[in-house]
TrEMBL record:
Name this polypeptide is given: Cytosine deaminase
Annotated InterPro entries: Amidohydro_3, Metal-dep_hydrolase_composite, Metal_Hydrolase, Metallo-hydrolase_Enzymes
Keywords from the UniProt entry: Hydrolase
GO molecular function: cytosine deaminase activity
Species whose genome carries this gene: Mesobacterium hydrothermale
Amino acid sequence: MDFRALPSGRVTLRNLKTPACLLVQDGDLIAVDLTLDGGLITDGPEGRVVDMGGAIILPTFTDMHTHLDKGHIWARAPNPDGTFPGALATVGADRMANWSAEDVRARMDFALRTAYAHGTSAIRTHLDSLPPQDAISFPVFRELRAEWAGRIALQGSCLVAIDNVGTDTFFPNTARIVAESGGVLGTVTYPVPNLRDHLLTFFDIASQHGLQTDMHVDETLDPSVDTLRTIAEIVLETGFDAPLTVGHCCSLSAQDEAEAMRTLDLVARAGINVVSLPMCNMYLQDRHAGRTPRMRGVTLVHEMRARGINVSFASDNTRDPFYAYGDLDMIEVMREATRIAHLDHSATDWPRAFLTNPAKACGFDLPSLAPGAPADLVICRARSWTELFARPQSDRIVIRGGQQIDRTLPDFSELDPLMS
């Protein structure tokens, strides 16, 4: 078939393939025909028939863990040594020097245009919220959410260190900004004195405002770090029942097997969502000058899935000191996660971890190929998983509301005025 253009109007796409799990069926890739009309998938009469040659079709993606406010600062703020401390220090300095509303808005809009062209329709972004940045970035986020409505559904989560969470700190005011923005309450957890008290305050403030929560957790390969267990214990003790997502959880991969499994049992009982960020974690974790890395940094996704934990994958950082690469392309995330976490030779329902699982965790509309669902689709020329993951699928088709979109990516040179 000609991948340059699909006919407009009522059209029947014949001879497609899609993961069986997306149609609530058993098996791997299965054949499917879809008819599109009026911006929807329909079970009505056929339209103009197009033979798709066995191409793989997917709903558009949910990228549930990003940092749009940090994105694309690498040209002016590169990580000096590729380490986590180097990233923290470099981002902190750049934020104080450069993150005006205009700067944040321009880079976030660039990122959204990129994600849209790649086939993403929902994004949760973390926003650095150490004052005064919370009062700068959240208004920008609200403006962009309104501008992008109907193209990319947006959620914003504040990002502050757990030791800043208290009733006598700036955090209650940040939580008020988050609530007024219809956002998500977030924090970064690591071993600090009185961790339980900070966490109890965090969940109490979330409950007061009726907010979902999202935490960066144990982003280290130090096996002694296990704040995840404390989080799960507190959720079970308090009965906190708002949606909670934890990201990274790298230290699980370095811990004693029995101890790690005990923590995962608690996470499963607590109903906590987990998102793995394999590209960023491989970049940062186990990096030592002159030494080959020994560990991948990816969390225990297979063991989580076996316990019924809702597991997802996402992009994380993009061209900033925490990850020098990336393009908010969820097909790249699928490809790399499959390789890094050995999702191949495994269960056949892993595609949910890039589509339905993250949407469910965040509360976005669930992607679907069922009649009546929006015709928001990604079609790749690839006819099998090995073909899909062998190439970047740069010629993919993205359909939104039944119409093929222009997939021209924004040029990096647009950002040059911000980098001087």
